[in-house]
Amino acid sequence: MLTRLKTGPKAVGAKQSRRAIADDRCACAFLAADADPNLTDPIRSLCREHDVPVEEVSTMKALGAACGISVGAAVAVLLRE
Fold first, then answer.
1. Which residue, 11, 64, 58, is CA-closest to 32?
2. Which of 77, 80, 58, 78 is nearest to 18 (CA)?
3. How far apart are CA 24 and CA 60, in angstroms?
């Protein structure tokens, strides 16, 4: 599903991802394993509350690349189509 981030509708970053999850527009969330837990843990909890599946990506750099951006990303979500 990580490859769908490059072409599918997505939100990248904690603030946009949190909003998409809270609005029930999120199909799946991706969290970077090397990101600050103070940033990712609240999003993981929000995903649990909204029954959103979470996939862990090894690094922020890999998640950023999967999203088609040149910088790392701690959080990204795949939006429902």
1. 58
2. 77
3. 24
